[in-house]
Design a protein that fits this description.
Elements lengths: L22 H11 L4 E4 L6 H14 L3 E6 L10 H15 L8 H7 L5 H16 L5 E6 L12 H12 L10 E7 L19 E2 L21 H15 L3 H18 L6 H10 L2 H4 L5 H9 L5 H14 L2 E2 L4 H9 L2 E4 L2 E4 L2 H6 L2 H11 L3 H9 L10 H11 L6 H56 L7 H20 L4 H14 L9 E6 L1 H7 L6 H13 L4 E5 L10 H10 L3 E5 L10 H5 L3 E3 L12 E7 L5 E3 L1 H12 L4 E5 L4 E4 L2 E3 L17 E4 L10 E4 H5 L12 E6 L7 E2 L9 E2 H17 L6 E2 L2 H21 L3 H24 L2 E2 L3 H38 L3 H13 L3 H12 L1
Parallel strand pairs: 1-4, 1-5, 2-3, 3-4, 9-19, 9-20, 10-11, 10-20, 11-12, 23-24
Antiparallel strand pairs: 6-8, 7-8, 13-14, 13-18, 15-16, 16-17, 21-22
């Protein structure tokens, strides 16, 4: 038993004993060493990738800097040109081991405003040719055929390679750079734009099959004498035509057969039949034959043409090579090869599997008219075997943009001629019938005139038609139910959130309390300190600076669950010496512990924020009851209550059931599940609607650098609530708000808004947003529906109705804005929707009922006219019948029976 292992499929390692050298090994090595651009383009599984690996190893042995790019690793589906070129450049960056030399992310950002191909040019010119200034550079590009699946043109990529080749005459450093391309493609098809010069540079390296002399190493697994092994290998190469994949596979099968039989009797034909040909679709592992099958059968534009050419090769033994698109595609499938100017089947194995029966079976499947074509050919091209009008149209649609065989075009052309003759005969018959039609036209014209006059008369008589009031009441109830149901199911929630955001932005009464100051840790602060998180020492110094300036309360919107050396003891000492410092913790959706010392001093509040379904912050969570029953206060509530306590304002509970809290001049109402636009919202804890006081720019804010440099006015800190938080973009502590202009709001400014709302509410009595009870909201919506129905019932003129609609809709929005300015959030979208919907339904039903009434009156009048003009009256009634719905046709038939 032999221990030799063959590798069937995949790339061989550079030192694999199964590797068989061919003339291509010498040619590409010689070409790349001398600086030639080379391309190895052939069918699949011909050993291209193994050749690439071996060539790369040999080049590196000569101290040539070399790397390989696999384009399939970049991807092709849903990828942009910029992403594709970034993938190429990043593979070059990693392949040439430039990680320690340049910062790729920073370099890529510097190229932001230039095209992708310019980025590739700059990378090669400014980085590769500079960092490797004393050596040759070779870039090997594998799987080049993957470009055909990209959603954009890659013509610039190949034009750039040609540019590098041409630059050798101008810039000497480009002489050190060369490329090699590997894949399943034809060089002339690489550049798609026919207005550009084809990709016609470099040296083509042809991959031939294995030869007996060079493939003798493959006999290592046969466990036979040298002469016997050579004889078996010669037979294998005859069967496979030297095709690398099949040769390796057949060698493996022979070795297994020798081991299993314990004899030297080999029947290649039996092995090939049992292990490859029979049930080849199932046995084709790793996949090889199915690849050829799929490439032929799923070429959308030329499948029939490919099969037709291959059918000729099978029947005649060969076909002259003319380098047409179809012949190139057939060569790239690997099924055929070029031999002295002729296309022939590559090997006997392919010829047994992809035989004439296989071709004919798939031609029948592909052609929608295969049965008719076969009958036409067998019956001597009789006309009655041609396609009829419908079948011809379907066949021509199918044949569009496809390259078919000559017999297909003959058959379709003959069918077109036959259909044309049939159409001409039909036209002659129609001309005869036309004369008879003219006789009936006069009666029809008279009928049309009668019908037009009757309709105008009936229309004038019914101009003042209105729906009965009972119908109007039913419409109001129906639209009210629909509108309230839409709101109750949350279908209008996103629109109502949108209007809420507009109300916040337009709130003219929004003001910022002068007791809040924010110290921001900006991007510039982090860069100047060269550290984040900032050290305990820097934080302690900042707190001391605020204490010296008599800050009333200091809120640290910075996580400090772990020490950040140096200065930890100094920070703890600062915490111990000041009882007006509050820190933060996170208790929901991922716990973050508070600063240990502040937690011990009970000077900690949670900074969790409640996010609405559209990812925006519109609610403030003031307190939360933990599983152990302890009630935790929010960071913002702690600071606000601490400040209010300093001016003798303390919270009072008014009602045990409703959880109303009186704080100074304000009464706080907890948000309920269905308040405002919210539908079954999660309102655990004590939540209120967050009334933003404009944007972050409204608050007094300074940077940490300004604080450390003593550039902040004393009045901006003395007796104030001072928040210290991070606003640097790199930390990403930002949230979407009703503003989101010009960008999202930092968390510290959201907490400042909550503090401002609580303080202003307690001191001034405003800033708290109230909502109506749900039943009152339903009543408000229903009132507008009643108004809409009344307007639709009163106004018959569309011009007046549109003016009334515009006025009423404006009132809905103005009323919503005015009440919001008085801290009341009432529905806007539901009443506007119900108002418009009830008008539409009322008008549609009115028109429907009016049409039915007019139809009855019209039929009565036409029946009276028919007594004097029977023919015209009968035609007019038939016109009425043809132009009406199925329901109204019954009305016409009832009157005809009378």
């Amino acid at each position: 038993m032999t221990n030799h292992r063959y590798q069937v499929g995949g790339s061989l390692a550079q030192d694999d004993t199964n590797y068989v050298e061919r003339s291509a090994d010498h040619l590409i090595y010689e070409g790349l060493v001398t600086g030639d651009f080379c391309y190895v383009l052939s069918s699949r599984q011909m050993g291209k990738s193994s050749l690439l690996v071996r060539t790369k190893y040999r080049l590196e042995a000569l101290s040539i800097s070399c790397t390989a790019i696999d384009l399939t690793g970049i991807g092709s589906d849903n990828i942009t040109a910029d992403q594709w070129y970034q993938g190429i450049i990043s593979q070059l960056y990693l392949g040439f081991n430039l990680i320690s030399k340049i910062n790729f992310k920073r370099w890529w950002q510097e190229q932001e405003n230039i095209s992708p191909i310019q980025k590739l040019n700059n990378f090669i010119k400014d980085i590769l040719l500079v960092y490797f200034d004393n050596c040759r550079i070779v870039i090997l590009i594998d799987e080049i055929d993957s470009i055909f699946a990209l959603p954009f043109s890659t013509d610039d990529f190949f034009t750039f390679i040609r540019f590098c080749y041409n630059q050798r005459a101008i810039a000497p450093q480009y002489k050190r750079l060369t490329f090699a391309i590997f894949g399943v493609a034809n060089p002339s098809f690489l550049i798609q734009d026919k207005q550009r010069t084809p990709f016609n540079i470099g040296r083509a390296i042809k991959l031939t099959g294995f030869t007996l002399e060079r493939a003798l190493s493959l006999t290592a697994g046969f466990n036979l004498t040298l002469s016997e092994s050579k004889s078996v290998l010669q037979d294998i190469l005859w069967w496979t035509g030297g095709q690398p994949f099949l040769t390796q596979k057949l060698c493996q099968l022979v070795a297994k057969d020798l081991d299993s039989q314990k004899s030297n009797n080999i029947s290649l034909s039996r092995i090939i039949k049992e292990k490859i040909v029979d049930r080849w679709e199932i046995q084709d592992e790793p996949e090889h034959l199915r690849t050829i099958n799929n490439r032929l059968l799923y070429s959308n534009l030329s499948t029939v043409r490919l099969l037709d050419i291959y059918q000729q090769i099978l029947k005649e033994g060969c076909v002259g090579c003319d380098n047409s698109h179809e012949q190139v595609e057939l060569l790239l499938s690997g099924l055929v090869t070029e031999d002295r100017g002729y296309l022939v089947v590559k090997n006997p194995i392919y010829q047994q599997i992809f035989d004439l029966a296989w071709v004919e079976q798939h031609l029948i499947t592909l052609r929608p008219y295969a049965t008719q074509l076969k009958a036409w050919l067998e019956d001597g091209q009789r006309k009655d075997r041609l396609l009829n009008h419908t079948s011809l149209h379907q066949a021509l649609v199918w044949a569009q943009n496809k390259q078919l065989a000559d017999i297909d075009y003959q058959f379709l052309s003959a069918s077109q001629t036959s259909v044309k003759n049939q159409v001409e005969q039909q036209l002659n018959q129609e001309q005869i019938a036309k004369a008879n039609i003219e006789i009936a036209l006069d009666a029809a014209r008279e009928a049309i005139a009668i019908l037009t006059e009757v309709k105008q008369t009936i229309k004038r008589q019914n101009y003042s038609f209105r729906l009965p009031k009972s119908w109007l009441l039913g419409i109001i109830l129906f639209v009210s139910l629909v509108t309230i149901s839409l709101r109750s199911t949350g279908s209008l929630q996103n629109l109502e959130f949108w209007t809420y955001d507009r109300l916040i932005q337009n709130n003219i009464n929004s003001q910022v309390s002068p007791v809040i100051t924010i110290i921001e840790i900006t991007e510039k602060d982090i860069q100047s300190l060269s550290q984040y998180p900032i050290s305990d020492r820097i934080l302690a110094q900042a707190i001391k600076s605020l204490v010296v300036r008599n800050a009333r309360i200091i809120g640290l919107d910075i996580y400090r669950d772990l020490p950040v050396f140096p200065g930890t003891k100094e920070l703890e000492q600062t915490f111990n010496q000041n009882y007006n410092i509050y820190g933060i913790e996170k208790i929901l959706n991922g716990k973050v512990n508070p600063p240990p010392l502040l937690s011990k001093l009970k000077q900690v509040g949670f900074n969790d924020l409640i996010v609405d379904p559209d990812e925006k912050i519109r609610r403030a969570l003031l307190s939360y009851t933990l599983e152990d029953g302890n009630v935790q206060y929010s960071f913002a509530l702690h600071l606000a209550l601490k400040h209010l306590a300093s001016i003798n304002i303390k919270p009072e509970k008014l009602d045990n059931n409703s959880h109303q809290i009186k704080l100074g001049q304000a009464i706080f109402y907890p948000l309920q599940q269905n308040d405002g636009a919210y539908i079954r919202a999660k309102t655990k804890g004590y939540q209120i609607l967050l009334n933003y006081q404009k944007t972050a720019a409204q608050f007094d804010s300074y940077s940490l650098t300004e604080l450390r440099s003593n550039k902040i006015p004393a009045s901006a800190i003395k007796n104030r609530i001072v928040l210290l938080g991070v606003t640097a973009e790199s930390i990403n502590d930002f949230y979407s708000t009703p503003y989101n202009q010009p960008k999202s709001m930092a968390g510290v400014f959201i907490h400042a808004n909550i503090i401002n709302q609580i303080v202003r509410g307690a001191v001034v009595g405003d800033s708290l947003i109230r909502v109506l009870p749900e039943a009152w909201e339903w009543l408000y919506i229903s009132c507008w529906i009643i108004i809409g129905a009344t307007i639709a019932w009163i106004f018959r003129s569309w011009q007046k109705l549109i003016i009334a609609i515009a006025i009423m809709i404006s009132i809905i929005f103005i009323l919503g804005n005015l009440l919001f300015a008085w801290q009341w959030w009432i529905p806007i979208i539901p009443p506007a929707l119900g108002f418009l919907l009830v008008i539409l339904v009322t008008k549609l039903i009115t028109q429907q009922q009016k049409s039915k009434l007019q139809l009855r009156q019209t039929i009565k009048l036409l029946l009276a006219i028919s007594q004097n003009k029977p023919a015209a009256g009968k035609i007019a009634l038939e016109y009425i019948k043809q132009g009406e719905s199925r329901e109204n046709i019954k009305i016409v038939e009832q009157f005809n029976q009378l």
